[in-house]
Structures are given as C-alpha cells and as structure tokens.
Amino acid sequence: LRASVQRIFGNTEGNGVFLGKKGYLMEDFTAPSQERLDRTVNSMMNFAARHTDLKQYALIAPNAVNILSDKLPALAPATDQNPYLDATKKALENAGVTFVDVRDTLTAHKDDGIYYHTDHHWTTQGAYFAYLELAKVLGINSGSISYDKLPVSMDFQGTLSAKSGFRASEKEEMDVFLPRDEVPASVVNYVDEQKKTASFYDTRNLDTRDKYAMFFNGNHGKVIISTPVEENRTLLVIKDSYANSLVPFLAPYYRKIVMVDPRYFYDDLEELIQVEEIQEVLYLYNANTFYSDTSLELALAPSEKANLATAT
Questions:
Q1: How far apart are the C-alpha atoms of 236 and 258, rounded to whole Å?
Q2: How far apart are CA 25 and CA 72, in angstroms?
Q3: Strands lying side by side in the sheet with 280-286
Q4: Rounded distance between C-alpha atoms, residue 243 and residue 237, angstroms
C-alpha cells in the first residue's frame, strides 16, 4: 500500500530498489569503502601468491542496475559499478588471476531476458551467456553440448518485489536449460547435510516463496559435484547464489567441482584444496554481494597449519 501511494506521487525508489522501465526492479549498488575493497582484493591476491600452482579465475557478474541502466527511471541516483569492476580486474590480473569480464557479452544480450524483473538474480538465460564467455578462458568447448530451455514456473516472484513493495502482483517465468545431447550423470553431494542426489535442481522449492532455491536447493557451505568424465579436471568454485544457475553448465567438463559459499563455510580452505586435489579456482559472484560481503576475506586467510608450514 505504501509503495502504491509512493508511485502516485512519482516515487520510483523504495528500500534501495528502483522501479525501472518495462517492469524491471533493480537493486541499487552500494559502493564499498576503499578499505573494504582493498581488504577483499588483497586477500585474493595473497591467496593467488600462495597458490601459484593453481589456475585462478574471477567472474564478478554486473547486476541489472549496471547492464540495464537504460531502463532506470529518469534521474535515478544509481551508483556506477564499473569503476570498481575495472579496479578489481586490474588488481587481480596483476596478481595472475584471470578476470572474466562478461559486461560486453551481457550488454549485447540486454534485451534477451538476462535478469529477472522482480529479483536480484540473473536468469538462467543470463547465466548461460556468461557461461559461454567463461568457457573460452577455461578451455571448454561449449559448442559440444546444446540445450533446450524448459519453463519450470510461470509464477516466480523475486525478493526485490517483497523488499520494495513494487509490482506486488507481478509473476514471471523461470526456466532451466536441459542438454539435448546425452551427458554423463552427475552426483551432487551436500556434504554438511550428508545428502546426495542425482539432480542439480530441487523442484520442491517451486512450491515455496524462494523458488530460486530450486537451483542446488539454495546455498550451502560445501557441495561436491562428481561426474564420470574422461578428463580429470577438478575445480573449486568460491561463490554466491549467482553461481547456482551457472555451475550446471560446467559440470560435464569436470571430474569434480567443489562449491564453497564462504558465508556458510567454516572449514579449512587450504586443507580442502589438498584433500580434493584442486587444480583450478573460480570466484563466481555478483557485484553487489562481492563488494559488500566480508566472508570471502575470512575464508581466504591462511590457516594456522599453513602459517606453521611456512614458518617451518
């Protein structure tokens, strides 16, 4: 009701969410302090220096407020993400981390439904376009598998609608991409929950408010995906929820993918890398979370065991 009254008086912002053109709700970007930015990026640079034997990549996905800026309401005081992405890209590449910049790719497809109208996530279509760009640097032949888009819900309503009060009755389509070709079946191990499944999707969540949790049943501290492929590649994905709709595209190319969400991960990352014989590391975040979250810095900090080994 409050949001409806605000709209009558021309207010197009509520709780940090802009009411954009063509029905898009877009969350504003909160710029990090220079200290916060330095601490996060320095932790990644220090991690890269300690693990020069690992191939390391970073994909920091721009949000709708960046790519769909032409759909912002007139004179919206949105903060530009690009200077922060540019600075992060420069610092990480100087440290030997390959920065996978998907801004041009997403901009080229900005009218192809790459973000939800009512939610802060990218759609599976948006994740797929980003995957195609990521595949180039990972050495993956993305053309070896083609996909069909399958609608799984027609009444998805995201968090930005609830947060702002705008478009409270808006419902939209939610899709998954299923391979047309036969691919090796993966086993998904939710380690902390001691549960295994043969699917990336938990369709029970389609009957709940948080339908996006259909992808990997939401966020977990540690998830291990095992796939019987010939090439013995192992990948550590340090991530937020944007990764949940992209990682299924990577699974057919890796013997093992270990997903770690630092917000819920309390184990020793250094030990995990050794135990799981990790060969590659991918940071996969959206910019809003990456620049506001403090858990990544803590997860990347050298453990006491690593400090002791270095001192010895």
A1: 5
A2: 9
A3: 98-99, 55-61, 280-286, 234-239, 256-260, 222-226, 187-190, 195-197
A4: 8
Name the nearest CA neighbour of 128 among 146, 111, 144: 146
- Judge if pTM exceeds 0.90: yes
Q: Are the C-beta atoms of 252 and 145 separated by less than 8 Å? A: yes
Question: If you count them, how many residues does the chain have?
Answer: 312
Burial classification of residue 186, based on how many CB atoms lie within 10 Å of its CB (0-12 exposed, 13-18 middle, 19 or more buried): buried
| Kind plus residue range of the DSSP H or E element containing 102 | none
**Which of 204, 159, 184, 192 has the alpha carbon at shortest distance from 15?**
159
State the Cα–Cα distance between residues 49 and 133, nearest whole angstrom. Answer: 26
207-226 residue pLDDT tens: 999 999 999 999 999 999 99
Token pair in block for residue 15? 């709780």
Beta strand residue intervals within 65-145, DSSP E: 98-99
Bin 271: left if φ > 0, else alpha if -120 < ψ < 50, else beta: alpha
Q: What per-residue confidence (pLDDT) applies to 169? A: 83
Q: Give the residue from 218, 196, 197 showing the smallest Cα distance to 206.
A: 218
